[in-house]
Design a protein that fits this description.
Length: 159
C-alpha cells in the first residue's frame, strides 16, 4: 500500500484486460480499517498502455504479430529466452516506454553471454525483438521502435 497525503493507503492501480471489450483499472484503499475496492472504466485505451511492462508488451506483440504457423514457435522460443533473461536481470521491472536502444542492446548482450551467441544468433535475436517493438509501435504502445536502424554485427563469410 502507498500512503497518500492524508495518511490513507492505496494499492498500486492494476489493469484488468481479461475481456478486451470490458477492461478497467482498479485499486484498493483502506478506510476505517476496511479495504475498499475501486474500479474505473471509460478511460481511453491509450491511457493504460504507458505503464505496461516489457514482458507483457512482448506477449502482446507476439499475439498480434502475423506470422506463418511454422515461424511462430521459433519467435516464441526466442522471446521466452529474452524474457527469462530480462526477469533474471531486472529489465522486466522497467516500463516498456523506458526501453531505449541502449537498454535493448544491454538486454541482448546479457542473452548473448548466457548462450554464447555467434554474431548470426545475436542478429536474429535483435531482429525478433525489433519486430516485436514494431508491433508495439503499430498499436501505439510505443512512439518509436528503439531498434530501428540497428547495424547488424558482421557475420563471417561461409565457405
Amino acid at each position: 500500500m502507498v500512503p497518500d497525503t492524508n495518511g490513507r493507503a492505496y494499492t498500486m492501480p492494476e489493469i484488468s484486460t481479461a475481456n478486451p471489450k470490458d477492461w478497467y483499472i482498479w485499486f484498493r484503499y483502506t478506510h476505517n480499517d476496511k479495504e475498499v475496492p475501486r474500479k474505473f472504466q471509460g478511460i481511453k485505451p491509450t491511457a493504460f498502455r504507458k505503464d505496461i511492462f516489457q514482458v507483457d508488451g512482448l506477449n502482446f506483440a507476439l499475439e498480434k504479430k502475423k506470422l506463418a504457423s511454422q515461424l511462430k514457435p521459433g519467435y516464441k522460443s526466442m522471446l521466452d529466452f529474452i524474457k527469462q533473461v530480462a526477469v533474471k536481470e531486472g529489465y522486466n521491472l522497467l516500463p516498456l516506454t523506458e526501453f531505449d536502444r541502449g537498454v535493448c542492446l544491454n538486454l541482448i548482450d546479457e542473452c548473448a553471454k548466457v548462450r554464447q551467441f555467434t554474431n548470426h544468433n545475436y542478429n536474429k535475436h535483435v531482429a525478433v525483438l525489433r519486430s516485436m517493438f514494431g508491433e508495439l509501435v503499430q498499436y501505439r504502445m510505443l512512439k518509436s521502435n528503439p531498434l530501428t536502424g540497428f547495424r547488424e554485427k558482421e557475420e563471417a563469410e561461409q565457405v
